[in-house]
Design brief:
Layout lengths: L2 H17 L14 E9 L4 E5 L4 H10 L5 E5 L4 E5 L6 E12 L23 H18 L9
Helix pairs in contact: 1-2
Length: about 150
């Protein structure tokens, strides 16, 4: 797992826990988004973040807390949550509960970066390291070359 994904996962999990966001399916996020639950359904592909040893409710809350999440699949047997950057095809799967986000975040709702939650276990240089990684990835996208220190 990349450092950026680990940091993003920790930040999303921290926001969910710190805010007490464990909504029921009928609840909405503060920006008006809600989740349509799809029982016994997998939405394959488009995994953007994997959360292990969690609950379906926490998976849903993590998706609603992440403005880029469009769907999730929760594996009820493994207790793993797969946040999705897009919605894949609905596929029957007995050990899965998926959710599709309905509604959008208003344009301009976020003004600048969100503050990091209090995470004393996170190294002090983690935000700087993440910013450097972001810049390296952007440079790599322009040049077509992987940034130094990163491999697929």
């Amino acid at each position: 797992m990349s450092i950026l994904r680990a940091l993003r996962g920790a930040a999303v999990a921290g926001l969910v826990l710190a805010a007490g966001l464990v909504p029921a399916s009928a609840q909405q996020s503060p920006d008006g988004r809600r989740v349509e639950i799809l029982d016994r359904t997998d939405l394959p592909g488009f995994d953007s973040l994997i959360l292990r040893d969690t609950t379906r409710e926490a998976c849903e809350a993590a998706c609603l807390a992440d403005g880029t999440c469009k769907a999730f699949t929760f594996n009820t047997r493994a207790n793993w949550c797969f946040l999705k950057s897009d919605v894949g095809p609905r596929t029957p799967f007995a050990d899965a509960v998926s959710g599709r986000v309905i509604g959008t975040i208003a344009q301009g709702a976020v003004k600048g970066p969100l503050p990091l939650p209090d995470m004393p276990w996170l190294p002090e240089d983690a935000p700087r390291a993440a910013a450097l990684l972001k810049a390296g990835v952007a440079a790599g996208a322009r040049t077509g070359r992987a940034p130094d220190g990163l491999t697929a």
